[in-house]
Amino acid sequence: MPNVVKGSKQEKMVVVPYRPRRRLLITVAWLAGMGASAAAGLFYGYFETFRTEQIAQAERQRLTDELANVQQENADLRRQVAILDTTSVMDKRATEEVQSTIRGLRDRVALLEQDIVFYRQVVSDETESTGLTIGQFDISATNEPRTFRYKLVLRQKDADGDTYLMGHVNVNLVGKQGDSQVILPLRDVSENIRDLDIRLRFKFFQSIEGELELPEGFVPERIQIAAVAAEPVAKSIDQNFSWVVEGE
To answer: For residue 9, is it within any domain?
Structure first.
């Protein structure tokens, strides 16, 4: 019986059978479990890394596609801005050209109006009458004793430059031959006139002129002028001029 110190705590002893194989199996199993755990951890880490990389690649591809779309949209917008700028410049130039043309036309119209006023003043006298009027009648001598030059000018008062005066005029020489009074139409004494009714058609004035030859024994006293206007204003003129030869 072993020695026991009185008063000390006594621990129970357990007798375990000595089994070296079992301890080896436990050790091997533990090492296998540790290896399996390590392998599982490595596989899980590789899987997570692969999955994360796949997600990252997909995200990069999405961002790349979005960047390409944004760049394309930006290029389209730049082209539209360039087109709008070009259109704006063309519109501005066109507007400037139109305005310049309008200014030129206005200046031209102003000059034409001034010319119209000038020509109206040249071809018309300042009278209250309008329409057909006799502006001038002259008789002048020539080198031939019984041959004379004549000039009759008929005018349209207040002519607007667009309207023709339409009508006719008769010119007669009134005088005596012997004891009888004789009326000679201008066409009978002038080769320049063929008709009794001399046609009138003019905007501002019409000149009727030529030479006339008096018959033997005919003594002229006056010139009788009868003019009729049908358009634009109906008007008749009946006027006598004394036989007065310029230069005599």
So the answer is: no
